[in-house]
Amino acid sequence: MLAQGLSLLALSFFAVHATILGKDAVLTIESTNYDFIIVGGGTAGNVVANRLTENPQFNVLLLEAGPSDAGVLEIQIPFLCTHTTPQTAWDWNYTTVPQPGLNGVAIAYPRGHVLGGSSSVNCLVYTRGSRADFDRYAAHTGDDGWSWNNMLPYFKKSERFTQPSDRHNTTGQFDPTVHGFSGLNSVSLPGAATGIDDIFSAAINELGSDFAFTTDTNTGNPLGFGWAQAVIDGPTASRSSSSTGYLAAEFLSRSNLHVLLNAQVSRIFSGSLHDSSDQSLLDAQKEIVLSAGSINTPQILLNSGIGDNATLQGIGIDPVIHLPAVGMNLSDHPIITLSWLVNSSTTYDDFNRNTTILNEEIIKWQTTREGPLANGIAQHIGFVRVPDNSSIFVNTVNPTSGPNSPHFEIFVSNFLLGDTPPDGSYLSISAIMLTPGSNSRGSVSLNASLPGSPPNPFQPPIIDAGLLLSATDVPLMREAVRNILRLASAPAWRGYIMSPANSSQPSYSASDTEIESYIRENSRSAYHVVGTASMSPEGGKVGVTNPDLTLKRVRGVRIVDASVLPYVPAGHTQATVYALAERASDLIKDANVE
């Protein structure tokens, strides 16, 4: 055993039509030594690149495997977020292995393959999770820096809450005391009114109880229903990503920051290696920061010989560091959507099926920065907790992080979320089960097609999402579906909702068995992937990273992305990753003070 850890301060990568961004147009890889090399220009990596280069003494190279996001309307326009994946140039286009919890179906597993990473292709929803999620991270790692009280300043630091594009009065629609107004990640409320706004408000007033209105679901106590917040820059009505914010022109002009696109990293290593015809070597004097995401970070580690020794040997990779947890503990949220045909002419369905109408709206967006395309997929959102005395928990542990944490999220969309039929107007209500049980864990492993022969490091890995495998998962999804049906059955929707969009969709009076069958057949991933390089206590024998995000038993490597989260938070992951990366940047700076 190496008491001080092994130093891994170099990496190999493969560049295809490499593009250099930044003030310095000449990047001589072979002769340049960097203080920090960041692998992955995604949600977290761009934050770290920005914050480290605030110090003019630090020389930073950022490597992104995908292309630039500049000028891509599908990425820029909020409503077109559902057009960015899957099977596009901005997606890794991954597919999982067959999922037993989903009746054996293999599902698409989008990940951002573009500058900005998944923050450039996701559906923009901004939720932080609950206070207890972060207090659980602190308890799990023994580092109080991950607690809610200590992370809230980082949420605020990353955030620039902006006026929505329609400039409506937002009084009572969010709580300004828990938000930041000078950060680099823009957040806003819906920028265009919809035909369901008043109906939804009336519905939750009629139902009350779990559907009670809450001013802001991002206070750390998210229970209740309110206005959705999204990573949209209100004044420009555009997506706010880690690229548009943290790599804006003023930051790219820094002489100590280089960004190399279309450059995929294969592995990290120590010692000297010879160049090959298709790979180059880079050296980092201080740290390598892996920010390649919950799929690609473990893939790089495994290709580097960091993982379970026996497994690596079995596929022809020489083991370097025995860390069996690499690629394990993958945790994700399942999602399900119910839809109805509605009596309306103001839904957004025509934008997804009529290119003429869509192009007219795009021109309006380009010239005025207003209109329905300024909205994302959800205008209204809510979080619900199943009672602690529910029969679901009689023989098993309640999987929430604490007594005020939700079990599921519900959000409402003014169009059919999915394949759009050739005609008709629709309402969609989706539920995300936020608390997968302890058995609902998947993995990322290498694809070794030839036994004994090392896998191609650039070949897609094997991904198991591990969805709906725990005893509480389907029952909690069932309660989420029943809550959707309860919401849609409120008197306020009479005259608006006409009939289910799908005849197989369960009704309000459906049996548990009917609902559970529908769940198995129709649930998919919400793509909130975490856990594959989990942090654990300093010196702990399990896990992959220490509480300061350094790679266990290794010097000079830190992991900064969602893979370090040991549990998936009770919300969409991007807000958490922004805050995590802000804290990680401070940790890196403090550790490298000269």
TrEMBL record:
Catalytic activity reported: a pyranoside + acceptor = a pyranosid-3,4-diulose + reduced acceptor; pyranose + acceptor = pyranos-2-ulose + reduced acceptor; a pyranoside + acceptor = a pyranosid-3-ulose + reduced acceptor; pyranose + acceptor = pyranos-3-ulose + reduced acceptor
GO terms of molecular function: flavin adenine dinucleotide binding; pyranose dehydrogenase (acceptor) activity
Location (main, coarse): secreted
Subcellular location per the Swiss-Prot or TrEMBL entry: Secreted
A Pfam family annotated for this UniProt entry: GMC_oxred_C
Cofactor annotation: FAD
Keywords: FAD, Flavoprotein, Secreted, Signal
Positions of the Glucose-methanol-choline oxidoreductase N-terminal domain: 293-307
InterPro entries from the UniProt entry: FAD/NAD-bd_sf, GMC_OxRdtase, GMC_OxRdtase_N, GMC_OxRtase_C
Record has Oxidoreductase as a keyword: no
Protein name per UniProt: pyranose dehydrogenase (acceptor)
Organism (species): Hypholoma sublateritium (strain FD-334 SS-4)
Lineage of source species: Eukaryota, Fungi, Dikarya, Basidiomycota, Agaricomycotina
